[in-house]
Write a structure and sequence with these properties.
Elements (H helix, E strand, L loop, with lengths): L5 E4 L4 H14 L4 E5 L13 E3 L5 H10 L4 E4 L5 H6 L1 H22 L3 E3 L2 E2 L23 H20 L3 E2 L1 E3 L1 E3 L12 H12 L1 E4 L7 E5 H13 L11 E2 L3 E3 L1 H11 L4 E4 L4 H6 L8 H7 L7 H12 L1
Parallel strand pairs: 1-2, 1-4, 2-3, 4-5, 5-7, 6-8, 8-12, 9-11, 10-14
Antiparallel strand pairs: 11-13
Helix pairs in contact: 1-7, 2-4, 4-5, 6-8, 8-11
């Protein structure tokens, strides 16, 4: 059997760090090449090979993929929702061109598999608010959502037309203690734990009853590797899979923290991110992922809170 050699682009980001470490555990350190524009994240230092790489430079990317004998690419480099609204054309260019570069090279070099994340940001105000289904009205209103939705169809196109085995998950808000979030609308749910420990208080940029789909990073990493390990004939969705674990509001996460830190207090000062959050569903129906490749989350809100606080301490 041909040994897999994996390239993780955007390896220093919130998902990238933990996914790289997980893949190195599964495949062996030398088989997983981490790449990013930024400095290597300290958590990756000494755990395996690292290259400085700009996904927008297609020639350099192509050279690296050939030189390193890459068989799988995980493309995580992106500009997220809140950051993207400040610079829409940059967000569009990076999120789209980066994906097209990878898909093109994957087709040319006949790579085994590509992973590319989508997001709940593809949904818009006209999508169902509760238990938003896999197939539904999708009319995104942020540049991040628009780029992710377009990207889903590029993935589908490369699968259908060229047979590129590209797989995708619509991630909910992701919560982790290892690396900082990267400018998303759900980042409050990471910041709140840090502030709870440091200051015993937090000022939230969303309203107290803003429900959003969320997931603890260990579940997100496991979902990603399980999707990528699944036999190709189990994969019925070639745009991107809905994925769900829990949905909660700032008031509920605060309450969960108060069970561990009784004197924690929260205040609310909604900003421009509120309108982004209001355009997204409050909960997601992921029954197709559960059916196709046996997806099942392990963490709920309280289990996550205990683990987050323990690790941050």
């Amino acid at each position: 059997m041909h040994k897999e050699k994996i390239l993780v682009i955007g390896a220093s980001g919130q998902i990238g760090v933990e996914l790289t470490l997980a893949l190195r555990k599964m495949y062996g350190a030398a088989q997983v090449v981490a790449a990013d524009l930024r400095e290597q994240n300290p958590l990756l230092a000494g755990t395996g090979p690292y290259v400085s790489l700009d996904v927008m430079n297609k020639e350099m990317l192509h050279v690296q993929i050939i030189r390193q004998n890459i068989t799988q690419v995980y493309l995580l480099a992106a500009i997220l929702s809140a950051t993207g609204e400040k610079n829409p054309s940059l967000a569009w260019n990076l999120n789209m061109q980066g994906l097209l570069n990878v898909l093109d090279i994957a087709r040319e070099e006949k790579l085994n598999k590509v992973f590319w994340p989508s997001s709940i940001a593809v949904f818009g105000p006209s999508s169902p608010r509760v238990n938003c289904p896999q197939q539904t009205i999708i009319e995104p209103t942020t540049i991040y959502g628009i780029s992710k939705y377009a990207g889903e169809f590029w993935c589908h196109y490369y699968w259908q037309r060229y047979g590129v085995d590209v797989r995708s998950i619509r991630y909910p808000g992701l919560i982790s203690y290892k690396s900082a979030p990267g400018g998303g609308t759900t980042d409050y749910a990471v910041e709140i734990y840090h502030e709870a420990l440091a200051k015993r208080s937090y000022s939230c940029f969303l309203k107290q009853d803003t429900y959003l789909p969320m997931m603890y990073m260990p579940d997100a990493i496991r979902a990603t590797t399980e999707l990528m390990e699944a036999p190709a004939d189990r994969i019925s969705v070639r745009t991107s899979y809905n994925l769900s674990a829990m949905s909660f509001s700032p008031a509920e996460i605060a309450h969960s923290i108060q069970k561990q830190i009784p004197d924690f207090s929260i205040g609310y000062q909604p900003d421009y991110r509120q309108s982004i959050a209001d355009s997204w569903p409050q909960s997601i129906d992921d029954s197709v992922a559960r059916r196709d490749w046996g997806w099942k989350p392990e963490y709920d809100l309280d289990a996550m809170t205990v683990d987050m606080l323990q690790n941050l301490r």
